[in-house]
Amino acid sequence: MILTSDAVARSMDYGHEIEFGVFITPSNQQPQQPVRLAQVAEQAGFDLATFQDHPYQPAFHDTWTLLSYVAAATERIRLSPNVANVPLRQPAVLARSAASLDLLTGGRVELGLGAGGFWDAIEAMGGTRLTPGQGVDALGEAIAIIREIWSTGERGGVRVDGQHHRAAGAKRGPRPAHPIPLHIGAYKPRMLRLTGRLGDGWLPSLGYLQPGDLGRGNAAIDEAAARAGREPHEIRRLLNVGADFADAAQIDRAVELAIEDGIGTFIVAADDPGTMQRFMAEVAPAVRERVAAARAERGTAVAPRLGAAAMALRAEALDYGAIPESLRATAVEPGSWEYPERQHTYLRGGAPGVLLRPTSPAQVAEALAYARSQGVAEGRVPLSIRSAGHGISGRSTNDGGIVIDVGALDRIDVVDVSRRLVRIGAGATWGRVATVLDEHGWAISSGDYGGVGVGGLATAGGVGFLGREHGLTIDHIEAVEVVLADGSLVRASRDEHQELFWGMRGAGANLGVAVAFEMVAQELGTIGFAQLAFDASETADFFERWGATTEAADRAVTPFLLLGGDQRGKPRLAQAMIAVDAAEPEGIIDHLQPFAMIAPLVGQQVVQTRYAGVIDNAPGGAHRGQGEPTTRSALIGSITPEVATALARFLDAGAHYFFQIRAMGGAIGDVASDATAFAHREAKFSVIAFGANRARLDAAWDTLVAPHASGLYLSFETDQRPGRLEDAFPPATLARLRALKAEVDPENLFRDNFNVVAGAAATVIE
C-alpha cells in the first residue's frame, strides 16, 4: 500500500504496538469448547482472548465464570469481557472480581465495559431500564467506583454518590497486579466523549460502523481527552473485526486501519481453530511488518508508556531519556501504576524521581552509571539503595532522586552442603532465607522480622534472635559480591579485597552495592520461643534484674524486651520474646524459669517451633511509611543500677511510643573489635526508641540514655546531627573506613546513609 500525502495528513496513527485478539462465542452447548478455543488462540500467538457478556442469554456461559476457568487453563494470553454488561455487573463487585483474577493470573486481565443495549432482557433479569443518556452517566459512575476500589493508596473508603451507582464508604482493594485497562464499547457522541475522558481504550465493532465513523470517533475521543488534560495516545484503539480478516487479501485493509485510523488491536471473531491459526500465521506477521515499515518511513513516534498527567510528575532534575535501555522497561516513575506500592519504605515516606530495578550485577553497574550522570556525586540528586525497604533508618527512599532496588537479585543457592555454605542474593528477604534453609535443618541469625532485606542487614550488623549463640549476621559471611561506584564487580573475602571485606561487614552502605553473599549457616532444629508479659511498674528494678538474668543465661538463650507508651491508669507492661535453642520442652522451661522470676507475669505463651516459624513473619504488601522515622539507638554494657534508673527515667519522660532492648553479648563478643567495621563487640545490649517528636525524643535520650552508651547501631538511628558517626564507629575504625571510602568511592557516590566522608555537609542531601 502506498500512502498519499492526503492520507498522511489525515492519518491518526497513535504509535501503539500492534496486537491481535480473538472474539470467542461463550456457547455452553459444548461446555469446554470456548476453553479449548482460548487455548488454541494462546498456542497460535494471540495476545488477547475476549468473550461477549450477555448474562440474560441461557445459551451462553456466564462470562466471568468462563474467564476465570480459561485463566486457569492458559498461561500467557490476556483475557477480557467484550464488553462487560455493566447494568448487570455491580461495579464494586466487578472491580474486586477483576482485581482478584488479575492477581491470580499475574496481570492478564483487561476489562471491556458497555453501557448496556438489550434493555428488555436486562430488565427481565432485574436490571433497571435506562435511556441512552442515563446509560452514559451510569457507566461514568461505574468507572469512578471501579477505579476508586483499585486505588488502595488513597485514604478512607470509596464514596461515589451517583444517580445510578453508589458507594458509601466501601473498603478499597484488592489492588490488581497491573493497571487493568478499561476499554469502552462506544459509538454515539456522549459515549465517545466519556471514552476520551475516562477510558483506556475504545472498542467498537467494525460491522456496526459506517464509512468515516472511525475518523469521526477518533476525533471526538481526542478532543475530549485534550479537554481532560490527556494525550490522544493514552487511549488505545481496538476494533472487533470479522473472520474474513483471516484472509490474506485483508492485509492491506488492516494496515490502512492501523496507519490511518489508529487501530492498535485487531480482535478477530473466530470460533474455528483453523481460522485462528491462519490469521496468526499469515495475516498478523504481515500487518506488523508493514505497519512498522510505514511508521519508520514517516517517523511515527512510539506511544509513551505514561500519560500526560504522569509525565508532569517527573522530577525536573532527572533526564529520563538517559535511563539505560536494559532498565527502562522495569523502571518505576511517579504516576506509574507500581509507584504508590514502591515509593515508600517501612517507616519513611518518599517520592523518588525514579526507581531502577536491575536483574543482574551488570544492570546494577548501568544504574550506577546513570546515577553518576545525573549529578549524584556532586550532591545534586540523592541516591538510595534498597533490598527490601524495611530498614528502620529509612534511607532506601528519597525525594526526587534515584532508588536502585536490588529486590530482583533474590536467588538462594546451596554452594557446599558439607560446609553449609549458601549464596544469597541481596534482594532476598530473611523470612524466605529462613524457610529455604530450614529445609536443610540450617539457620542464620537475622534480626527479628522476615520482611527485612538481606542486603541491608548483612552490610550493617544483624542483631537477631540467635545472636548470643551464633553472633551477628555479618559474622556468617564468607564472601560478598559488590558492585563498586565505578561499576566494577568484585568479590571480597578473607583472601580477596580483604579491606573491602572488612568494611562491607558493618559499613557497606558507604562502599558499594552488595549483590550477593556467601554465608555459612548453622545447624538448627526445633527451638523454643516464648512470649512473656510482665508487670514492669517497678521499672528500674525490673531492668536491672532483666539485664543480670540475660547475662547469666546460657548462650542458647537470646531475649528481646519491648515496652510501648504508658497508658493512663494502667500498670507499665513489658513484653519479652525469648528464643531458646533447645529441642526438649523440659530444657526450654529450665532456660526460661529465671526470666519468669524477674517480675509478676501477666501473660505467657511458649511454643516449640522452627526458626523459620519465628522469623518468617512478614505479611507482605506494600510499605506505607509516612514522613521521617524518629528513632534513637544506643549500645550499652551491663544494665547496672545507674543504667537501669536512667532507662526507667527515660520511659517516664514519655517521649517514646516504642522502646526495645535486644540482647547481645555471647558469641557477638567473641569476635575481635577490629575484625569487622562493626566494632562495638563489647556491648551486651542494643537499646532502641521510637518517638513521635524529634525534639522531645532527642532531649530525653541525650540527657538520660546517651551518657551510658558505648556506641550506637546505625540501622536503628535516624538522628542526623553531627556526632552520630563518631558514636557508631570508634576513631580508629572511622579513620580506616574513610581511607577505604577514598579508595573505592572517591567521588562519594554513596552518601545518603550516614556518610563517613568527613564534614557534616556530606552527610545528608537536603
From TrEMBL:
Domain of life: Bacteria
Matching SUPFAM superfamilies: Bacterial luciferase-like, FAD-binding/transporter-associated domain-like
All residue ranges annotated as the FAD-binding PCMH-type domain in the record: 347-524
PROSITE patterns: FAD_PCMH
CDD domains assigned: Tetrahydromethanopterin_reductase
Entry's transmembrane regions: none
Any GO molecular function: FAD binding
Alphabetically ordered keywords of this record: FAD, Flavoprotein, Oxidoreductase
Cofactor(s) required for function per UniProt: FAD
Annotated Pfam families: Bac_luciferase, FAD_binding_4
Signal sequence, renumbered to the chain: none
Record-linked PANTHER family: BINDING OXIDOREDUCTASE, PUTATIVE (AFU_ORTHOLOGUE AFUA_1G17690)-RELATED, FAD-BINDING PCMH-TYPE DOMAIN-CONTAINING PROTEIN
Family the entry assigns: Belongs to the oxygen-dependent FAD-linked oxidoreductase family.
Protein name as catalogued: FAD-binding PCMH-type domain-containing protein
